[in-house]
Write a structure and sequence with these properties.
The chain has seven helices and six strands. The protein is of the alpha/beta class. It has a six-stranded parallel β-sheet with strand order 4-3-2-1-6-5. Helix 6 links the parallel strand 5 and strand 6. It is globular and about 40 Å long. The model has no long low-confidence stretch (mean pLDDT 94).
Length: 149
């Protein structure tokens, strides 16, 4: 997979109630949340139950609301996702080599090691927070910037 970035940082979904006071500006309309999320993060992981219920119009909107380098990671499901280079079905084999769950492995030294290994082979690393832990996500973003990825 070719990618313009080496490290993509994001969360499982962009809808986290605790983000309303901590991340999203007051009064931001619900239909602007993904666009705002994409001002800081470059990827989102969507469970199959979430993305499989999305309509074709939802997908058009989501793709239009995000920048060209943004990636949607999808848990495998029974339906086929829309065909777009920005949509990646995160099969178990793919997850094993490209996904770093920051909640489960918050060690920044290990993340730096993983990032260096990915840099050596030119493959992107997706750093995802299951819980939407903004502090861990920001740490991963800072590490990415410090390492130059």
């Amino acid at each position: 997979m070719s990618a313009s970035r080496l490290i993509y940082v994001g969360a499982q979904d962009w809808l986290h109630p605790h983000w309303r006071a901590a991340f999203y500006p007051d009064g931001l309309p619900d239909d602007w949340l993904l666009s705002y999320y994409n001002t800081r993060f470059q990827t989102v992981y969507l469970p199959s139950a979430r993305w499989q219920t999305a309509t074709a119009a939802d997908w058009v909107q989501w793709l239009n609301d995000t920048q060209p380098g943004f990636r949607f990671l999808l848990e495998p499901g029974t339906l086929s996702p829309p065909c777009d280079v920005r949509i990646i079905v995160a099969t178990p084999a793919w997850r094993d080599t490209h996904l770093y769950w920051i909640d489960a492995f918050p060690d920044l030294r290990e993340l730096a090691r993983q990032a260096s290994a990915h840099a050596a082979n030119g493959e992107p690393l997706f750093v995802i927070s299951h819980s939407g832990d903004l502090e861990k996500m920001e740490q991963a973003m800072t590490l990415s910037e410090v390492l130059g990825y």
